[in-house]
C-alpha cells in the first residue's frame, strides 16, 4: 500500500530505509530509529559499491565524502531524499536529483560557528607561526629566536563573503579589536553598519587587508577570486585564510607569492582537489593547512547530525519539508496552480541575478492579470531564490525571503488586478548602482514560462540551459558576425531571439546554445564592433 502526500511523492507504509554513507555523529542513527526509520551506517564504500546498494534506500544521509553523481542517482530507484549534514552541497548533482524528484536538504547553520572559529584559529596560527614553532620545539631545537609574530589587534581583516560564517568571523575579529572590511555583493550598507564592518569593493579590500579570509561558496563568480592578478594587488605581507571551498584561491599563484614573500602566510582548510594528498604548497615556509576540518567539532557534528536526521525522517514519515534546496513548501491545493508561476519566477530572479548583481538594495515583484489572483508569497520566494542562488548554495524557496530580509534587501510586492498586454505577467525590478533594471515574463500554452521583456526591450525567449546575452548597437551584419564566431568555435545555436529599442538603437540578442561558451569566445564576442555587453547565462 502507498500513501500520497501533499508533495506528490508516494511513501510506502513499510518503514522508510535510510543509509548513512559518511562518518556522522551516532545521534543521527538514533534519531532515525526513534522517528520510525530503518537505518544502516555503511561508510567508506566505493562509488560502485554504493551504486549496487543504493536501490534499496528511501533516504541517503551524507557529509562531503560521498559524491552523489548522476550514476548513483540513476541506480537510486527508491530514493526520495538526500540529507547533507553540513552546508556545502557541491558533492550532490542537484539538477539530476531534482529531475528524478529527489529532495535535497542541508543544515545551513549547524556548523557555522565552528567553521568561523576554525578561520580565526588559522589566523592566529599564521600570525604566530604556531605549527612550525611547535614542530621545531618538539624536535628539540628550542627555536626561541626563530619566530617573530605579528599582533592582530588594530590590523585590518578583509572578509570576502559576509554570509552566515563570514558574519560570525567578523564579530569575532571585532572582538579582537581588528578592523573588518567586507566584500559581498549582497551586503547592504545598513547590514554592514549593523555588523560593524566597512563595506568595500574587492579592489579596496585587497589594498587594505593585512589578513584576508574567504567565506563564499564556489561559483562561476568566485572561482579564483584570489587569482594571480588579485593576489598581486594585495598589500605586501598579507596573510590569506581559506576555510570555505577549494578553488577560491589560485593555488599555483599562492605558492609563487609565498615564495617571493609578497604573501607572508597562507592557511588552507580546503583544496581545489580533495583529498589533497599532494600539493606544490606542501612544505612551503609560512604555509599551513588542515584536511577540511572546518566543521569538525563535537558540537557542530552533533548539531548537523541531529538536524539532518530530524529533517529527513520528518519528510519520509510525514511529508514535512525543511531546508530543501530544490523544493518549495506548499499546500496541496495551491501547488498545481502555482508551480508554473514559481518556475517562471525563479527564472526571472536568476536572470536579474546574473545580469544585475552589483549592489542590489531593492527588489520589486509585480504580478498582473491572472497571476494577481494567486498567493504571491511563493512567487516572491521563487524570485528571491533564483536571484540569491547566484550567491549562495544554501538558498531555497523556504529560506530565501528570510535571507533577503536578514541581508537588508528591500523586497516590495505589487499586485495589479488589471490585465495588461499579457493575460498574466510577473515583473521583477531591481535597484542597482546603475539604476533600476526590470525583466518580465508570462506563461504560454500549458504553463510554459516565457521571458517577454528585458531592461525595457520587448523580447520573447525561453530561459533554459546555456544562453548568451548580448547588448549591441543595432546595425546590419551584426547577427552574421556573432553566428560566424560561434560556428567557428563549434557552438551550436538552439534558438535565437532579438529585441531592440528602436531601429538603429540599442538591441538585445538572446541565444540558447547546445554547449557553454568559453571565456575566450566571450572575449572575442566583446571585441566585435558595436557590442556593449556580452554575458554567458545558465538556467536550470
Ligand atoms: N571548511 C569547512 O569545513 C566548511 C564548513 C562549513 C561551510 N563551509 C563553506 O563555507 C562557505 C560559506 O558558508 P556560509 O554558510 O557562510 O554561506 P552563506 O551562503 O551564508 O554565505 C555566503 C556569502 O558569500 C557571498 N558571495 C557570493 N558570491 C560572492 C562573490 N562573488 N563575492 C563576494 N561574496 C560573495 C554571498 O552573498 C553570501 O553572503 C560555503 O562555501 C560552505 O560550503 C566550509
Ligand atoms: O560545507 C560544509 O558543511 C563543510 O564543508 C563541512 O564538510 P564536512 O561535513 O565534510 O566536514
From TrEMBL:
The keyword Phosphoprotein does not apply. InterPro entries: ACT-like_dom_sf (IPR045865), ASB_dom_sf (IPR029009), D-2-hydroxyacid_DH (IPR050857), D-isomer_2_OHA_DH_cat_dom (IPR006139), D-isomer_DH_CS (IPR029753), D-isomer_DH_NAD-bd (IPR006140), NAD(P)-bd_dom_sf (IPR036291), PGDH (IPR006236). It catalyses: (2R)-3-phosphoglycerate + NAD(+) = 3-phosphooxypyruvate + NADH + H(+). Pathway: Amino-acid biosynthesis; L-serine biosynthesis; L-serine from 3-phospho-D-glycerate: step 1/3. GO terms for molecular function: NAD binding; phosphoglycerate dehydrogenase activity. Belongs to the D-isomer specific 2-hydroxyacid dehydrogenase family. This is D-3-phosphoglycerate dehydrogenase.
